[in-house]
Amino acid sequence: MTDPHPEHVPTTWRPSGAAIRWVLTTLVGAVAMFLARPIAGDWGFFVQASRRLFDGDGLSVYALMPNIQSGPVSLAAFAVLDGIGVGDLVSRSIVFALPALAACWSVERIAADVPSRRPLTQLVGSAILVVCWISLRSSGHLDDAIVIALTGVALVLILEDRHVGAALVVGLCLAIKPWAIFLVPVTARQGDDRTQRLALPALSLFVGALAWAPFLIAESGTLDGFRPTVQLAPDSVLRLLGLTNADLGSTLRIAQLIAALVAVWALVRRRAYGGALLAGFALRLLLDPGTWPYYTVGLVFAALVWDVRESPWRLPFGSLATVIMLAPQWVIGDSDLRAVLRLACCIVAVIIAFASSSSRRMRRAALSTDTGDSRVSA
Predict the structure, then answer these.
(1) Whole-angstrom Cα distance, residue 221 to residue 63?
(2) Are 306 and 275 in contact (CB under 8 A)?
């Protein structure tokens, strides 16, 4: 007769697949940071700006330093880090590693409800992402690193139907980096009437406006920071199209953000969140006069989200193709060739984002017809 109360048999602990991927990704990132050039980039500039905000210029800091291109929350973060002594290579590496790990965590969560999860895609793609993340540390642009990580957090909240939290996170992104405005449509709740759909994007704009309002009220010159402050790079798509430094201005920045906003909004309406990020970041790079290597990280992250959520392939070809086609100068010396590859990469990314969203809609429609349920999830 079988004992209904068998003695407890101890089981051997086995790490989960997510834990293994986390450890391997961390090791890859640590090795990459160790091998990378120990440069600080613009870290010192942001620290100086934060000191001027709190100890000198106050609310006039953006009018007096229009090339900051970073939000009030970002300067507050630099002030805190400066206050606790962060500035050497090791401490900066640790600070930049935190948003990198947060971005990888978000990729795990974003892929959690995908029926055909591809662990290898997540592992290889995350490894690519953390290697590319080194360019953020080398640039000193902690603000961009945080916004990319928070983009992943916002998408996790949206997929978990916590749209209000996502709207607050996107609003925080606006207070960190103005270019994050093209992420605002991501927070729109689908299926509601127009007023309800616009409520959460409006909440994001309100949160961002709260951070910027004191500076705009104090100094109208704060708006000067929204104009491009970089020179037209030799490998910029804009130079390939015949533009010069004389053509750069606020109109270009507005056109860049409107194009990304429209694409993101259209794809969010199709519930193609991975495609929305992919198209948004691609259009931002396509129409930007600068081509700094750290610009690439946002598109690599968006491509990885698309890889794990919407790609039909078993490997992260989106992430791989992005890294290859946006190779830096030390890999591809010809600036014209880099510009052509950048153009091709961004255009293809937008096309793929819309094409894959159309195929997903067709599959949902077919499944809805077969099941008789019009509420089939994306």
Answers:
(1) 5
(2) yes
